[in-house]
Amino acid sequence: MTTTPAAPMDDLPAADFYRYETLLSDEERKILLDARAFLRKEIKPLVNEYWGKAEFPFEYIEKFRGSGLAALAYEGYGEHKPACSHLLGGMLATELGRVDASTATFFGVHNGLGFYSIYYGGSQEQRDRFLPAMATMEKIGAFALTEPLGGSDVSGGMRTTARRDGDTWVLNGAKKWIGNATFADYVVVFARDVEDNKVKAFVVEKGTPGFRPEKIEGKIALRIVQNAEITLTDVRVPEANRLQNIKGFRDVAEVLRQTRSGVAWQALGVMIGAYELALDYAKERVAFGRPIAKFQMVQDLLVKSLGNITASWGMLIQLARLQDQGIFRDEHSALAKEYVAARMREVVAWCRELFGGNGILLDYDVARFFSDAEALYSYEGTHQMQTLIVGKSITGHSAFVG
């Protein structure tokens, strides 16, 4: 991705009240500014049309290919080497959420869940075979863990099975809510081995017989994301496509630990996007002969929103430091996702409220942020599951059922 000169440090987003972006190096901020300009120019104009139609704009893929944003966090694969810091990676995820949560989710599924599953779980041969094309987005990835009858409890109740048959594996079962799955080239499917009862992971390539993804219709959130319910009927996958370092659900949890923090950064972006819309609207909307920004209750909504944003940003910056230092644990990402997603839910409601009746119109954008927040609040572990992870850490007692 080409870079532009860094903007003056007083040229910061309105939501960056504590000047957090100044923590980036000059080189990192150039990357962030380029991403911001790219998303505003190339992606934002498409969002409402496709969100309204619940369709995926496939021109996204070509645009992202030219942006250089994919695989920046992965040593040896991204356009900028070495891998970017977790702080920059988080702020890039925030920029995506700030423009559109659906786009952030599409990119996060490919660049986070799909890519990291192979990066962490694959052998060197598998990484060399699959990841270069994913890094350039010539191939798109997906991640298939959740099942129709198993969400938070899928670790102990996975019904999709894998049976070894010579040099191949035979997969049977179903998955649900799988983002990108209707068009992905590589879908990482998790299944329970009938022989040893351990969870294993397989890269199922597009067009494999017996692999049938069907788009889930009628969503009120993340409408651009093409979530699918997948049916697997005697799907034969070569042993060469079984991710060699995924040996049980602990390895699946490691993938989620890493990517969950990215969802928290996306949630911050959703807050910022809604807040910026509300702030601009308050300055422009006139009622009783003056801008509504002059009303005390409007200022109260804006200040509460900014407080949530500022507190969440500070938490995530320290989380990124823990990741860069290699002392980052499950409970750290769980608390971030639990806290930031809850604050996001408050902010988008306050910002939608500020718009009054206009707040339910897609033309004003805030309705999209309001709706999409519900999906971010639930995926990659519900609020309650994050609470249980953190609760076990701080008390020493597990409150999980089963």
TrEMBL record:
<feature type="domain" description="Acyl-CoA dehydrogenase/oxidase C-terminal">
    <location>
        <begin position="247"/>
        <end position="394"/>
    </location>
</feature>
<dbReference type="InterPro" id="IPR009075">
    <property type="entry name" value="AcylCo_DH/oxidase_C"/>
</dbReference>
<dbReference type="InterPro" id="IPR045008">
    <property type="entry name" value="ACX4-like"/>
</dbReference>
<feature type="domain" description="Acyl-CoA dehydrogenase/oxidase N-terminal">
    <location>
        <begin position="25"/>
        <end position="138"/>
    </location>
</feature>
<keyword id="KW-0560">Oxidoreductase</keyword>
<dbReference type="Pfam" id="PF02770">
    <property type="entry name" value="Acyl-CoA_dh_M"/>
</dbReference>
<feature type="domain" description="Acyl-CoA oxidase/dehydrogenase middle">
    <location>
        <begin position="142"/>
        <end position="235"/>
    </location>
</feature>
<dbReference type="Pfam" id="PF02771">
    <property type="entry name" value="Acyl-CoA_dh_N"/>
</dbReference>
<dbReference type="InterPro" id="IPR009100">
    <property type="entry name" value="AcylCoA_DH/oxidase_NM_dom_sf"/>
</dbReference>
<dbReference type="InterPro" id="IPR006091">
    <property type="entry name" value="Acyl-CoA_Oxase/DH_mid-dom"/>
</dbReference>
<keyword id="KW-0285">Flavoprotein</keyword>
<dbReference type="InterPro" id="IPR046373">
    <property type="entry name" value="Acyl-CoA_Oxase/DH_mid-dom_sf"/>
</dbReference>
<dbReference type="InterPro" id="IPR036250">
    <property type="entry name" value="AcylCo_DH-like_C"/>
</dbReference>
<comment type="similarity">
    <text>Belongs to the acyl-CoA dehydrogenase family.</text>
</comment>
<dbReference type="Pfam" id="PF00441">
    <property type="entry name" value="Acyl-CoA_dh_1"/>
</dbReference>
<dbReference type="InterPro" id="IPR037069">
    <property type="entry name" value="AcylCoA_DH/ox_N_sf"/>
</dbReference>
<dbReference type="InterPro" id="IPR006089">
    <property type="entry name" value="Acyl-CoA_DH_CS"/>
</dbReference>
<keyword id="KW-0274">FAD</keyword>
<dbReference type="InterPro" id="IPR013786">
    <property type="entry name" value="AcylCoA_DH/ox_N"/>
</dbReference>
<protein>
    <submittedName>
        <fullName>Acyl-CoA dehydrogenase family protein</fullName>
    </submittedName>
</protein>
